[in-house]
Amino acid sequence: MITYLQVDNLSKYWGELTLFEGISFSVTEGQKVAMIAKNGAGKSTLMDIIAGLETPDSGKLTLMNPGSIGYLRQNPDLNPEDTVLEAAFNAPGELIQAVKNYEKALENHDPKLLDHAIERMNVLNAWDFELRIKQILTQLKITNVNQQIKFLSGGQKKRVALAHILINEPDFLILDEPTNHLDLEMIEWLEKYLEKAKCTLFMVTHDRYFLDRVCNEIIELDDNAIFKYKGNYSYYVEKREERIQSLNAEIDRARNLFRTELEWLRKMPKARTHKSKYRTENAYKLQEKASQYRSDDDIELTVQGKRLGSKILNVKSLCKAYDELVILDKFNYNFARLEKIGIIGKNGSGKTTVLNMLTGNILPDSGTIDVGETISFGYYRQDGINFKPGDRVIDVIKEIAEVVDLGNGNRMNASQFLNYFLFPPETQFNYVEKLSGGEKRRLYLCTILMRNPNFLILDEPTNDLDIMTLNVLEDYLRNFQGCAIVVSHDRFFMDKIVDHLFVFEGGGIIKDFPGNYSDYRDWLEDKEKEQRAPEKREKSIKTKPAKEGIRKLNFNEKRELDQLEKDISQLEEEKQLLEREMNSGDYLSSDLVQKSQRHGEIRELLDEKELRWLELSELQ
Hints:
This protein is α/β, with parallel strands linked by helices. The protein is 43% helix and 21% strand.
């Protein structure tokens, strides 16, 4: 097996802060590896070092053929003056350049350039490559290829950067949080793409379904040590628990031994022999081991919310639109006590707009929102992390309250509260700007929960949070004695939390689905299967089955099966003919565009007819 990446004794420091120290691991050809670590452990910095954008303070890193690497940064660095087309195709290579020139000629409606571009496409047999590129751009919802990067949102930039990497088909993919800012449909497409792709993959992601379905090995960076798990996320969870239990057993043994050594040290005479010095040194080592404590329940979000009255939040005939974009159309709903609602829908369908209306930040066009007198909102916004320049961690909390009321007579001062949320005293006076993205989100979450809300509205709370924090947040929300609305693209998170879903279908339509996200996906798949089946009603003639209990083809189905075989054969011949014509170089550009469109139509028809043929052939 070829080793694509070899990391030996690598260390990186940020001032006095140790990101990682002396870590070693490797990634070999064909592996699909994910790295898991707590926020602030230096995952993104490590990715930058591997890609050559940062340098380690010590250690060695070896890459096989750096030219074949595709690196997706957590926040892509694109030229703001480039168009989407230029950014997506910004790479050397004849095929890439041929397709880029062809797309430009089509956009500019230049017949002379188009003829030249088509000739080059024919010489390189680039039509299949061009079709694959269009599929990638379409799946990632990249349509306006002439728009400049500087006018795109963060999510749109992420999609353009992802398209650029997938189009270039590198041998080694390095992805830092690839699912952030993608909607559920795109996440599932990317998941299937990477699952089937014949590439070597090293990535950081907190999407647990994504980890489970794509990766075949997980590397955990924990307390400056590397632990390897040869399996997917489910395997990792099981084996990690075994490791923690084993470690705790070792610590318990060390504590027992340390007690014995401590008694000996206290009784030992002052005149020490060489042997007693050795035993003293050994006792200090035992003390260090015994003082370790390992638990994943480091954060316990048990802040008690304010009392809920009988009336929660009633919405009646709510309407909202921006020009022709309809967000809500006569939406009605009465929120009940303790319910947990998930909101899903494509990017741009108005999810955040609706949350802002419920909290009074945006006014509806018509309709009413009646908020109960006891309701106290806690609104976690996507863009809410807006700390002042020069803020220290402790200042952020003290600005809200010097003392936090946890309910049931329990109180904490600001420093204790921060320690509770994994900000130990030595970090509380650090500047917020030095925190990692996930640590800033955790601090922002503290500022929301410490106000004791009884109606939580969480807009993408899972972005950048590590898996350990996600587990704790999930546990808190399950036990939260109030209402919660959650917008998230983390399917695992939604499955564990929500009672039902608001599905934003577009055009102002919101479907109330009774179940979690996986239930909804199962329902969708069943619905799609029904729609793919022929919408033909059988004639009223009832045919008697050949044998009781065995389903056989009736007369009409036999005729349909025969016709399908003929249709499939004809479509295959037409497809092959079109491919020969497109590669011949004998046709004008306008004819080739038409043939390319017909080629796509035939592929869809073949998929549909072959599926129906399989269904009928099983009944023969």
